[in-house]
Amino acid sequence: MSSRLHQTGLLFGFVLLWVSAQFLGAIGGPIAACICGALIGLLGTFAARFFSLLERPAWLLPLLLGGCSLLGIGITSLEHPLSSLSWLAAPLTILASGTIVVLQTLNRRRCGLCTRRLSPGALTFTCPRCALVVCDESCWSFEHRRCQLCVEHRVPLLSAQKQWWDRTLGPEATQGRCQVCMASFEQSDLRHCGRCRRLQCRDCWDNLNGECARCSWTIPDLPDSLQQIASSYNDARPSHQHE
Ligand SMILES: [Zn+2]
Ligand SMILES: [Zn+2]
Ligand SMILES: [Zn+2]
Ligand SMILES: [Zn+2]
Description:
The chain is mainly alpha-helical. It has 8 helices and 6 strands, in the order H-H-H-H-E-E-E-E-H-H-E-E-H-H. The two termini are 32 Å apart. Residues 178, 180-181, 183, 200-201, 203-204 line the site of one zinc ion. One zinc ion binds at residues 178, 180-181, 183, 200-201, 203-204. The chain crosses the membrane at residues 31-51, 58-78, 84-103.
């Protein structure tokens, strides 16, 4: 809340600054007024970006700066007779600011999957399976902890090497069934959970991101990329995704 107050104060200060600058510029004649207007558009936009003011909607900032310029000229015109050219300063402000806003929007990061442009504070995830950086809105599966493309194509996470499995979970089971998909030891490569000793096949271990479906024990030697997701989840996971 206090940061919001801080932002509002800052914005108010900037508005005063830009209005006064345009007021003084307009006294200097039409050319000075126009140069001043363009500068307000440039500096005002960079200053607002730096302090994260008025980020959305994008058109608001150019309009506000244009308004400041217009107000500055208006105040000057009360005292001094102004050439009509001086009034061009306001559209120049909007043009300068609008150009920067458009260029910055074009330079924004895109989602690796749906390619939509991401707002600066957008929540993104780096998929542990394919390393794509994707948006949280439509391309990340919170439940599966991977991008939708990897969900669709069943991209594996864990090693395909038998040695890795032997080292991590011990030797292949010679009896029983996978507790998730019910595959028998003859059909699939089953491995014991490190805690409850129940069996899961390698595909199910992989699909559950190395977690035991029963006791939630996880394989200790998981890829760093997955562990980072797990730690970032605590704050990022929306409650409705639990269902
Ligand atoms: Zn996306
Ligand atoms: Zn992926
Ligand atoms: Zn299974
Ligand atoms: Zn277990």
